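From the methods appendix. Each design record in this collection lists the tokenized structure first, followed by the designed amino acid sequence. Records were kept in a plain field format so they could be parsed without special tools. The example shown here is representative of the layout used throughout.

RECORD:
FOLD TOKENS (259 positions):
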């Protein structure tokens, strides 16, 4: 009898039923009557696939973090969701355990990044008074609702291949991000494009029905340009700078391992 794997996608909390040799239909683990060795092998392979997912998460944080810092936030948002969509659909066509692990590793690269970039943009544009409601609470309610609904969707579909493709569909929304999500004004400032940042802030003031005097924007522009001129190396920082100081390097490594 072929081995059955129960793979948990951490951020969605649903179950995959994966048969390593011939993936034909969903099986109940309790009905397999596996021997001790077969059961141990099943647990090991399940842990290996999940470990591949989190290794991808570490790599994705470095890759998409670099893209977000050097190529705008929106391209990073679209790119990581596109990777998640393609890899999740590709997972449904895996016909071996190792191809499944590879697909899970690629999916893992978008883990957290698929919404963290948007979360940062929201935090930048929302005043501290409303951040809990608009940012933290909205994301929390979304996760709670999705985590409660997804097991029922999985039960109703009863096919891990179809489930993988269905859960990839929401990622398509990210492709319209450049038209509905504003770019980070802070990123514009740090990249030396102060004029674009001011244009973005003016649009926000217009949408919110607020009137801001031109003198305020002029003073803001002078302040930003002075800051950029003072710190000429602001756009030359890389991930390696996290390890430049021993204490900062230790904290970085601990956070990566802990996460």
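DESIGN:
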């Amino acid at each position: 009898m072929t081995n059955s794997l129960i793979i948990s996608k951490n951020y969605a909390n649903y179950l995959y039923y994966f048969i390593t040799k011939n993936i034909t239909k969903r099986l109940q683990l309790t009905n397999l009557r596996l021997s001790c060795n077969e059961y141990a092998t099943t647990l090991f392979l399940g842990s290996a696939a999940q470990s591949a997912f989190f290794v991808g998460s570490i790599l994705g944080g470095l890759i998409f973090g670099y893209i977000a810092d050097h190529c705008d936030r929106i391209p990073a948002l679209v790119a990581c969701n596109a990777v998640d969509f393609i890899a999740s659909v590709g997972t449904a066509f895996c016909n071996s355990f190792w191809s499944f692990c590879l697909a899970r590793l690629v999916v893992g690269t978008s883990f957290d990044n698929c919404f963290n970039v948007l979360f940062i943009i929201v935090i930048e544009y929302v005043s501290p008074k409303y951040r809990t409601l608009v940012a933290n609470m909205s994301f929390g309610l979304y996760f709670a609702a999705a985590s409660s609904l997804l097991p029922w969707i999985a039960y109703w579909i009863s096919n891990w291949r179809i489930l993988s493709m269905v859960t990839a569909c929401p990622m398509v929304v990210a492709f319209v991000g450049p038209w509905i999500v504003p770019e980070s004004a802070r990123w514009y400032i740090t990249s030396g494009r102060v004029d674009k940042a001011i244009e973005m802030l003016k649009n926000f003031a217009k949408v919110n029905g607020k009137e801001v005097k031109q003198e305020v924007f002029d003073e803001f522009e002078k302040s930003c340009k002075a800051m950029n001129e003072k710190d000429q190396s602001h756009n030359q920082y890389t991930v390696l700078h996290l390890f430049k100081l021993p204490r900062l390097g230790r904290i970085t490594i601990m956070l990566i391992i802990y996460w």
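APPENDIX NOTE: Residues 34 and 40 are 9 Å apart (CA to CA).
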